[in-house]
Amino acid sequence: MVSFELARHLVEQHAAGVHPGETETADLLAALGRVLAEPILADRDFPPFARSTRDGYAVRAADVERVPARLAVIGEIKAGDSPETCTVNRDQAVSIMTGAPLPAGADAVVMVEHTSVVERPYPNAAENATLGWGTQLVEIQRSVKSGENFVPRGAEARAGQLLLDRGRKLDHTGIAIAASVGKTRLPVFRKPRVAVLSTGDELVEIDAMPGPAQIRNSNSYSLAAQVQNAGAEAVRLAIAPDEPRRLRALIEEGLSCDLLLLTGGVSMGKYDLVEQVLAELKAEFYFTGAEIQPGRPVVFGSCGADTPVRVSAAKPASAWVSVSAPHKKHFFGLPGNPVSTMVTFELFARPMIEALSGMTPQPLIFLSARLQSEIRTKTGLKRFLPAVLSGEFANAKVELARWQGSGDVATLARANCYVVIPPDRERIEAGEWVSLLMR
Ligand code: AMP
Ligand code: MG
């Protein structure tokens, strides 16, 4: 039995040693949620020209040091216009739009809100109504510093510079970056295949009518959903009974995938056979139990590369092949109670899946919020208790969900986070800041 922190550390250590699969190419939008296999570099300067961030007037800051100042408007530049359209000389301004290139000579933009067009600049001139560029005047009411209200060329990135590194999971920001450098297809890592194996004599498939003491194999689906959500492909195996021969055959089938997740059969009961069968397969165990609730019996280990593997459970028992896998295969034995399965997946299995997907390791992010009602509990375990985070703006508040223990998925479904209680706390008062893990 190890502490939560040590258990997580051990997983991270092993995750650092695994290798992602080959790479493949995906269409830009199909790459959403996939892991980038090659860095994306800027194909030109970003922005490619000095880009105005305001509607207003491009000016020389020196000309508007003292305000109000009157400048001759010599032209207009809108988004998409060439920056060579005009050059700003002394006491001149160019009307400019957001996203337009700064004209030569200008070194700042004055927001239109701080200007006014001089309607009749020449009281005695009859042509006031038909004034052209160069004879219109604008009055600047606020000074600007050189560099204000535009982004210099290449300020975000220089051509050739790294925009997004390999190992990043592509979300909409990554898609935007790829699109902005003109990539219609992206190299991504192949999704790892993760075997999901439910164990238990009480289990039936979800399309069968359960007997009075039988339970539908919902973990197989919830785990497959979590696996897919983490960016991998789930391979759901048949239900393993609490019987060593069949369990062993299915474990061996699961070990042909990149990772094996088992649920159930890791507690201390007479028919909890998972560890025993894995030990027969010469598994190495990194921990068997973590000081957490829910999920205390969680197991993590690996089977060596030369484990004999029966490729398909459908084939006769003689169909053994020695798969010389290049790396050892890791497995997690997750407790069977559905909430325990879900929590231990997130805490331990996810980082391993991410590593197998080629992702750069991500730390667990804890938030904090004010506890609304007192919590009393026992010491000894780090607890991850389903809770509801609410409150607007700066008033984040959290309250435990009233749950019936680690079988109660319905309550977890209504919760949106876990309150994390350190193992040495018996009582946490209302109003205290507590840490949270989002669900
Ligand atoms: P175990 O970890 O094998 O002791 O299982 C603990 C409890 O979790 C069992 O009594 C079942 O009610 C439940 N359970 C185990 N496996 C599953 C499963 N695959 N799907 C849904 N519930 C399960
Ligand atoms: Mg069981």
SSE layout:
Layout: H1 4-16, E1 23-27, E2 40-41, E3 51-52, E4 56-59, E5 69-77, E6 92-96, E7 108-111, E8 115-118, E9 136-140, E10 150-151, E11 162-164, H2 172-180, E12 185-189, E13 193-198, E14 203-204, E15 215-216, H3 218-229, E16 233-236, H4 244-254, E17 259-263, H5 274-280, E18 284-288, E19 292-293, E20 299-303, E21 308-310, E22 320-322, E23 329-334, H6 338-356, E24 366-371, E25 375-376, E26 382-390, E27 397-400, H7 409-414, E28 417-421, E29 427-428, E30 433-438
Parallel strand pairs: 5-6, 13-16, 13-17, 14-15, 17-23, 19-26, 24-27
Antiparallel strand pairs: 1-12, 2-11, 3-10, 4-6, 4-7, 5-9, 8-9, 18-20, 20-23, 21-22, 24-30, 25-29, 26-27, 26-28, 28-30
Describe this entry's structure for a reader.
The chain has 439 residues and is α+β, with helices and mostly antiparallel strands. It folds into four domains: 4-21 and 190-356, MoaB/Mog-like domain (Molybdenum Cofactor Biosythetic Enzyme, Chain A); 24-43 and 165-189, Molybdopterin biosynthesis moea protein, domain 2, CATH 3.90.105.10; 51-151, Molybdopterin biosynthesis moea protein, domain 3 (Molybdopterin biosynthesis moeA protein, domain 3, Beta Complex), CATH 2.170.190; 367-438, MoeA, C-terminal, domain IV (Beta-clip, Beta Barrel). Helices cover 18% and strands 29% of the residues. The chain has seven helices and 30 strands. It has helices at residues 4-16, 172-180, 218-229, 244-254, 274-280, 338-356, 409-414; strands spanning 23-27, 40-41, 51-52, 56-59, 69-77, 92-96, 108-111, 115-118, 136-140, 150-151, 162-164, 185-189, 193-198, 203-204, 215-216, 233-236, 259-263, 284-288, 292-293, 299-303, 308-310, 320-322, 329-334, 366-371, 375-376, 382-390, 397-400, 417-421, 427-428, 433-438. A six-stranded mixed β-sheet has the order 7-4-6-5-9-8, with no helix packed on it. Strands 16-13-17-23-20-18 form a six-stranded mixed β-sheet, with helices on both faces. Strands 24-27-26-28-30 form a five-stranded mixed beta barrel. A hairpin with a 6-residue loop joins strand 26 (382-390) and strand 27 (397-400). Helix 1 (4-16) runs parallel beside helix 6 (338-356) and helix 3 (218-229) packs parallel to helix 6 (338-356). The longest helix has 19 residues, at 338-356. It starts with a helix and ends with a strand. Bound molecules: adenosine monophosphate (AMP) and magnesium ion. Magnesium ion (MG) is lined by residues 200, 264-265, 336.
